[in-house]
Amino acid sequence: MDTIGATCLLPGERALACPQENRPPLLDSSELECLKQFEVTRSQLQQIQVSLLGCMERALKGKADSAPAVRMLPTYVGSVPHGTEKGDFLVLELGATGASLRVLWVTLTGTEGYKVEPRSQEFVIPQDVVVGAGQQLFDFAAHCLSEFLDAQPVGNQPLQLGFSFSFPCHQTSLDRSTLISWTKGFKCSGVEGQDVVQLLRDAIQRKGTYNIDVVAVVNDTVGTMMGCELGAGPCEVGLIVDTGTNACYMEEARHVAALDEDRGRTCVSVEWGSFSDDGALAPVLTTFDHVLDQGSLNPGAQRFEKMIGGLYLGELVRLVLAHLAQHGALFGGHTSPALLSPGSLLLEHVAEMEDPQLRQGDTCPDASDAELVQRVCAAVCSRAARLCAAALAAVLARLQHSREQRALQVAVATGGQVFERHPRFHNILKETVMHLAPECEVSFIPSVDGGGRGVAMVTAVAARLAAHRQLLEETLAPFQLNHEQLGAVQAQMREAMVRGLRGEASSLRMLPTYVRATPDGSERGDFLALDLGGTNFRVLVVHVTEGGVQITNQVYSIPEGVAQGSGQQLFDHIVDCIVDFQQRQGLSGQSLPLGFTFSFPCKQLGLDQGILLNWTKGFNASDCEGQDVVCLLREAIRRRQAVELNVVAIVNDTVGTMMSCGYEDPRCEMGLIVGTGTNACYMEELRNVTSVAGDSGHMCINMEWGAFGDDGSLGLLSTCFDAIVDQASINPGKQRFEKMISGMYLGEIVRHILLHLTSCGVLFRGRQAQCLQTKDIFKTKFLSEIESDSLALRQVRAILEDLGLLLTSDDALMVREVCQAVSRRAARLCGAGVAAVVEKIRENRGLEVLTVSVGVDGTLYKMHPHFSSLVATTVRELAPRCAVSFLQSEDGSGKGAALVTAVACRLAQTAQV
Ligand code: 0WK
Ligand code: BGC
Ligand code: BGC
């Protein structure tokens, strides 16, 4: 037991007793028993260390029970300061030092090497505010901010504020934090469970004197850690022992289950004040601790804090002194109102009484009383320091585990009045840590300004992220289409449809397909089918029997050189594939009727005549546009002697898809493709198709909606990124609607947005990534992968790193948002198009409500996790009187082409009969 000395005067009291000799007199058993209770053995400390470590690791894994002993709260501070932070920041500190708050003006000078002393002002919070209504507390804080700023040369510049809020909070971002429970004598109503940043913003708004933006909220331990001087190398632990106690440290992000992270480190606030493992704590809890706890504002909570925090040390000493006095062991058995009144002994009193200097000179009437008082102070404070050391040793052990390092070198930033005022606390803590964590080399860095600079650092980072977020939102805002804008697209498309059907100027060609009916199930026979124009070129043999349709197909590639070579080369390649397929399928020499799905805009003059109007989707074979592609195919067949093929029908992939789904569901009267390209067809009333004779019956119209807006009607919605992608395409000014929707272009739009955000410094720390300069490197399939809900952020990073991007998690999050904005716009525009078509069919038929199915195909529609549901939602919004179901085509449009051929053959036979 250390020797101690102190004055015996309590605040406002006359002297009771003071020491005679400097050799400590012997203590009687009751006194000894009293002090012995505060002795904590090494094995008890080790047990606390181990138990706390266990609680920390369970909480990190999210395995802790409902009321975890320690909370391990992510703080969204992902890196220790890298010294580049610059600017003037306001800091508001609430709760670190008891019933007071502090406002600071901190100027960060980045790497300019000189320091500007922060200007600060402290305000005492009236007790009725500390336990009053939450609004009152935040209004008080806003008032103090205003009073502080009245004395600063601020003018009306927007001010960025970092809010140091020293209570346990669930943080969901740097500027969103929900208070879990008050501690340290605070008990304001209407705050627990609330976002304290919003409460402060509302109060500042109500005050209305200064334009202050609260950009970050941090725990005081984080501010202390972030504020520690870089000289010593970054601190990775922040330790506070002030009115309360807590620590934070830099944990490997992958170990924090609450975060979807696999790389880097993140700061975790331990909130060890609530550590209460009865197994570990019960042996060290004294009767005085139970009395104090029962008398506190939060009985049963923060038990560990109540043995260490400066708010409680004075009270513990008072309880012991009162106990000893009441048992005649002190002050001659006398007590006093102050000695008996809770809260009368404060930390500074304990520090004073424990200070050995005091004993020498002062006039204490009874030396042995003074001695005993000092012993009590020392016992209470030493225990606090040792318990705090055991907790810190648990954090160090956690750091060793998470870094898989046995020997650990770490700097701990310390802050708080107990450190500043209590002479021996720091030494006992240091010594005990050395005993409990001998393989750790720990340097303690006292915080110079109570963490104000650290909070400003976090605020600077948050301000930078907030500015980035704003830039991101401004960049993506044009992609968020509201109901009015989509309604306008629907109306414009409707008008263009009518003009196209009438043969008037319209960006929608509304091409008759000569398909007058969807299959009725009576089709029979074997057919060859070709499917050109999507991701894959396929040759199929389709058997249509009573029992249904059997398909065998083979995928062939169309090399870019062929797709952009000569027409003859392209069609010879197609015939080569057919011959290869016939040989593989043992069909050589058989002349089966052939249906040709040709997914490009064709003016059809009949079922087997289609004049190619223009290539799309990266195809550009020469000498084809303006030609009848059925002729081109037949010529190629002729060039390849000894091959007999009977080309019966040419259909667009939308028509093939509609027919294929129509075979299963007769209500299917629309075909939709959202793949490499996009387009739609539907069954129009023949009377509305002026270019085809006849007033009754229907005609399937290939809308070629990819060209919608080529007349500039989509100009208002087109962004600078759309213009870049269009200009870089092989058909600038063409297929504008397609270039905002389909798979061939979405990846490119995203790539250009990423390049733009990088050039603004928002992404990849402003470092332009070489890989992103390459056209088409950001595939549209990446959007589908990145936006998948089941994909954790780390997997998003993996996709982007495979591309050669060096990125942070924030970058990955932003890339995902860019993908979401681009694909969402595409789906909504597509939905507006479908709504225009089904509404036209409904009005064509004068129906109150239309029930119709849409056959759909295309990789983007099928593979993207949200595209199809967004299209359906938009159609419900814009065409509420149409009950639309979307049927994903299983066998592609090749089957549809075979069915069209089958219908044509059946009609031809009945015509011969
Ligand atoms: C599969 C169809 C084909 C169509 C394609 C579109 O069978 O006719 O062209 O879907 O999707 P993409 O392959 O372009 O993603
Ligand atoms: C709070 C912590 C805070 C600590 C030190 C505790 O009561 O729960 O959030 O860091 O006091 O101020
Ligand atoms: C073509 C359409 C086709 C669509 C889907 C567009 O580029 O012009 O004919 O239906 O792509 O493949």
Automatic annotation (TrEMBL):
GO terms of biological process kind: glucose metabolic process; glycolytic process; intracellular glucose homeostasis
The keyword Repeat is annotated on this UniProt entry: yes
Record protein name field: Hexokinase-3
Organism (species): Jaculus jaculus (Lesser Egyptian jerboa)
Function: Catalyzes the phosphorylation of hexose, such as D-glucose and D-fructose, to hexose 6-phosphate (D-glucose 6-phosphate and D-fructose 6-phosphate, respectively). Mediates the initial step of glycolysis by catalyzing phosphorylation of D-glucose to D-glucose 6-phosphate.
Domain Hexokinase C-terminal, residue spans: 237-461, 669-903
Residue ranges of domain Hexokinase N-terminal in the record: 33-229, 472-663
Gene name tied to this protein: Hk3
Listed GO MF terms: ATP binding; D-glucose binding; fructokinase activity; glucokinase activity; mannokinase activity
Annotated family: Belongs to the hexokinase family.
Substrates-to-products reaction catalysed: D-glucose + ATP = D-glucose 6-phosphate + ADP + H(+); a D-hexose + ATP = a D-hexose 6-phosphate + ADP + H(+); D-fructose + ATP = D-fructose 6-phosphate + ADP + H(+)
Top-rank EC class of the record's enzyme: transferase
Pathway: Carbohydrate degradation; glycolysis; D-glyceraldehyde 3-phosphate and glycerone phosphate from D-glucose: step 1/4; Carbohydrate metabolism; hexose metabolism
Annotated PANTHER family: HEXOKINASE (PTHR19443), HEXOKINASE-3 (PTHR19443:SF1)
